[in-house]
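Problem statement: downstream parser choked on a complex file, so we are re-checking the raw output for the flavin-adenine dinucleotide run. The parser issue turned out to be on our end (a line-ending mismatch), but while we're here, posting the original submission so the record is complete.
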Amino acid sequence: MDIALAPADRAFRDEVRAFLDEKLTPDLRADSQKQAGVFADASLNRRWHKILYEKGWVAPSWPKEHGGPGWSEVQRYIFWSECAEADAPVLPAMGLQMCGPVLMGCGTEAQKDYFLPRILSGEHYWCQGYSEPGSGSDLASLQCRAERDGDHYVVNGSKIWTTHAHFANWMFLLVRTSSEGKPQAGITFLLLDMATPGLSVKPIISLSGEHEVNQCFFDNVRIPLANRVGEENGGWKVAKYLLEFERGGGAASARVRALFNRVKEIAGKEAFEGGALLRDPSFARKLASLDCELTAMEWTERRIVSELSTRGSIGDASASSLKLASSEMLQRVTELAIEAIGHYAAPDQRDALTPGANAPGVGPEWALTPTARYLNARAWTIFGGSSEVQRNILARAALGL
Ligand SMILES: Cc1cc2nc3c(=O)[nH]c(=O)nc-3n(C[C@H](O)[C@H](O)[C@H](O)COP(=O)(O)OP(=O)(O)OC[C@H]3O[C@@H](n4cnc5c(N)ncnc54)[C@H](O)[C@@H]3O)c2cc1C
């Protein structure tokens, strides 16, 4: 195991930094810093996607043959870490990190030829149709039904919590094609053009006041058989392959570290007994304790990245431990930010946070986002597998079950 950066990796890091200095312009960065959501708003991420696409860096984990940069695990990690530290917009994972790799692994040649270049260019904007009312953690219980009619499936039912479905023009979804045998054995993975008649998308406004997620209703929606990935009733295997991308990979600790650094900056500016809040022993202790845990997570993440270079796959237990640690730590950082800004946490700042809006915020500039981030961060321990579910996975791994 070699965790220190090799000279070539340090040179790569400098190249990424130079690129970010040039292309992540102050206005892009300022808009990105106002984002409280999991992924950047569509207009912002389209701008950033185009810049990365033109550079050939939009799909760090894709192999060269499909238009990726052909980076090593370490280079990807460096890239994602630098982007997080620079507050670059976070591109949605659904196309580039989820559907794309799944098509490479399980799609037909025709599906790869058609979809992969369009995911890469940003022409296709994807959303993930897995969860249903009543089927989240217990995903295999899903009921959205697809029945064959000639060379189409006819889909009826509903999907919920569909992130960015209101921006997306394509959805990958799981449907029930059989009720025989185990629930997992009757699921099929389909690709849906969102313009198909019979589909309606209704907004769900979250606690933070943002419109990130939706409920989607299917009323006799026709999907060509050619848009099936894998075998009929073989969708669970495809879904499991995809979930590993959702839970693992990336550089989660860098995103937490960037927020942590912001809290430190705020604490340097907020007043405390004639000095700065940073000098408050109680607050400083909380910061120091979180800093230690965050450092441990960073090193764990680096160890996993180093192992990935030789092992190839992250594995369920490592993916779960990273998801668990990063999401819970992110929540704690947002809690500290709220504590730091005190009464400025109370006003509703949504008007000032909308991209392109020129409504003034209440209080200093650094008090604009903490509340929205705090509220939005509650979802981190739910999506992508809740913390309880991750603990179950870890317990099973530890007990060898
Ligand atoms: C912001 C956000 C974005 C999302 N985006 C998407 C998306 O784009 N596409 C998509 O398909 N889904 C999405 N989801 C849905 C997400 O995957 C589900 O919310 C998640 O899987 C939990 O399912 P649930 O909401 O049905 O809760 P439930 O599964 O009903 O869980 C309720 C509670 O019970 C606990 N629990 C459940 N099972 C167990 C168990 N076996 N052991 C111990 N505790 C358990 C859970 O931890 C939780 O605390 C999103 C969710 C959120 C909040």
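For whoever reads this later: The longest strand covers residues 211-224.
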